[in-house]
Amino acid sequence: MLTERFATLRAAGRRALVCYVTAGHPDRARSLDLMRGLEAAGADVLEIGVPFSDPVADGPVIQASSQQALEQGMTLDATLELVAAAKLRIPVVLFSYLNPILAAGPGVLDRAREAGVSGLLVTDLPVGADAEREAWFGAGPLEFVRLVAPTTPLERMALIARHGSGFVYLISRLGVTGMHTELASTLPASIARLRSVCPLPICVGFGISTSAQARAVGALADGIVVGSAIVQAAGRNVSEAAAFTRTLRSALDER
Question: Is 47 one of the catalytic residues?
Fold first, then answer.
């Protein structure tokens, strides 16, 4: 479903809006409303973050949302129940650290697919770190989205692209997730380098939090990933998060 979605967008000359939310934040009911609201607001792909007790790659906004969801009992299987209940028509990518997936047992990928998940992104499993687990994910029923850092050598970028599917998530800057007032000056060069060795669609995330940034990145990449700004808005009001998403959709379509 991810591959088909990006093919449809490319044929239409449009850029993908990938929205991240933390499962169970602000609470289960509002999390469900948020997923549906973002779809209605124009999201092309929804990344559903599985709350984890040690989210080292995440900034303070997503860390806080993860902790809040954990305190309310959110788990990976509860996340899959949310996805199934939402009945979304857009692709869903399960965004998780490795430990919750392993703890959920060998059948977790099939359960995820049955719940309506199309893709998987594991934040702490770089290419070559664990060949057996990577093979399991790569041969599973979900498209396996890989991360690329801006400092990744060209040869390794090509390797990552060969071991991924759906799209490649290019991190716009070093550090953790979060909102920034300016885009990294090196981003255009990073996208160009990755494009030269990667046939998959490229989506850029980490730090995109305004319509102007969305428009600028959309002119260079195949899509954008927005997380912290949406999660922060959802913490105040789900309707605010949906309204913000509509502004991002409009900015991408104005290119």
Answer: yes
The answer for 116, left when phi > 0, alpha when psi is -120 to 50, beta otherwise, is left
- The predicted-structure confidence for 94-103, as pLDDT tens digits, reads as follows 999 999 999 9
Active-site residue (options: 58, 134, 143, 222): 58
CB 96 within 8 Å of CB 121: yes
Reply yes or no on whether 58 is catalytic.
Answer: yes
CA atoms within 13 A on the CB side of 226: 35
Token pair 């000056």: residue: 185
pLDDT at 191 over 60: yes
CA angle 45, 37, 12 (to 5 degrees): 40
Q: What is the dihedral of CA 60, 179, 239, 78, to 10 degrees?
A: -40
- Give pTM, 2 decimals: 0.94
Band (pLDDT 50/70/90 cuts) for residue 184 is confident
Q: Could you tell me which residues come within 8 angstroms of residue 41 by beta carbon, excluding any fewer than 6 positions away?
A: 242, 243, 245, 246, 249
From 33, 39, 44, 47, the catalytic residue: 47
- For residue 3, count CB atoms less than 10 angstroms from its CB and return exposed for 0-12, middle for 13-18, buried for 19 or more: middle
